[in-house]
Structures are given as C-alpha cells and as structure tokens.
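Notebook, student rotation project (T.W.).
Task set for the rotation: take a protein with a known small-molecule partner, predict the structure of the complex, and write up what can be learned from the model alone. Partner molecule chosen: 2-acetamido-2-deoxy-beta-D-glucopyranose. Sequence and SMILES entered below by T.W., checked by me.
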Amino acid sequence: MAKPLILLLAALSILYTASPANATTTSSPSSSAIDFIEASCSATLYPALCVQSLSRYATSIQRNRSQLIKTAFSVSLDEAQSTKAIFASKLNGVKPGGMAVVKDCIEQIGDAVDQLRESIEELKNIGQAKGVGQDLEFHISNVQTWTSAALTDLSTCTDAVVAGEALDGGLETSVRARMDGAARVTSNALALFNRFGTEL
Ligand SMILES: *[C@@H]1O[C@H](CO)[C@@H](O)[C@H](O)[C@H]1NC(C)=O
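Predicted structure of the complex:
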C-alpha cells in the first residue's frame, strides 16, 4: 500500500512543479537568483523550506537582499493568515470542551498576523530611516520584537492545542502541520532579517 502512494505523491509533485499556474510566477528565474536565495537561506533554521518558499519569487527577488527579506515576511504573513482561516473553518472538528482552547488559539494566530503586518510596515520605515539616519535602531528592534512575538504566539497556540487534546486526531495533525509551517517560515524571515536587515 505504502509504495504506490509514495509513487503517486512523487508523480503529483512533478506535475505540480510543471503546472502552468506555477510557471507564471517562476518564468525561468536565472540560476544566479536561485543561488542567491540558497546562499541567503543557509542563514536560517529551515533552509530547505526557506528555498522552497522563496524560489517561486526568484524573478522578483533577483539578487536583491531587501526584496528577499520583504518577500520572506510576506510569505510568513500569507501562511499565518491562511492558517487562521483554515483553522477557523474547521471548528466542527473541535472536541467537546476544546472550544475555549481553540478560540484562544485562533485569537493568538490573529495576533501573530497583526504583528507580522506591523513588521512589514516597519521594513518600509527602515529603508527610509537609513536615508536620513534617524531611528534606525528603533525600527530594527520593532521588527525583531514583533516578529519574535508572532513566533511565540504561533508556538504557544500549537502547544496549547496539542496539550489540550482539543481537536479530533486528523484535524489536529493537519492544523499542527500548518501552524508548524507558519512558525517555520516566520522563523526564517526573522533569521534573514537578523542576518541581512541592515542591507534593507
Ligand atoms: C531592491 O529592492 C528594493 C525594493 O524592495 C528597491 O527599492 C531597490 O531599489 C532594489 N535595489 C536594487 C539595487 O535594485
């Protein structure tokens, strides 16, 4: 049973990579842009995920560090938003007694979404502050503080949902995978910022 499934998944992943929907965003990025993304992603905790999530934007990232960081944050915001939406749409898989934990958790993901939005706003301020040499440290520390807070919210929520056994098994697995994914791309965005944020 296991083998055909793996083959099927392999075939699907090839199909997915070759799909036209994907091709519109990739439109054969230069290998130098991909090299740049790979090299930058080596500064993160989840380099493979980092490359995977950013390389589809290689054409707009090129070898531009500022563009790379902004894209990493927007990937993170997208993931947090869709995790929240998916979670909120699956409340019928919540066990009796689990609703309080789940509502808290969805609220925390909402906080993470807000914090990531604020961070993205601050990224713009950093570029401007550099020009006039004002409040640069302040804007940098805001991004670090808010992104770390978003990361904490995402992991606290995952822990609470898992520990509280609030969800039916299948739903718990899928929600957890999404929250882990959102937390990882957020961790990656923060790592890229910490390493290269001064190049914004
Ligand atoms: C890099 O991207 C930023 C936008 O994120 C842009 O303002 C800047 O001009 C770009 N730098 C180069 C060298 O293209």
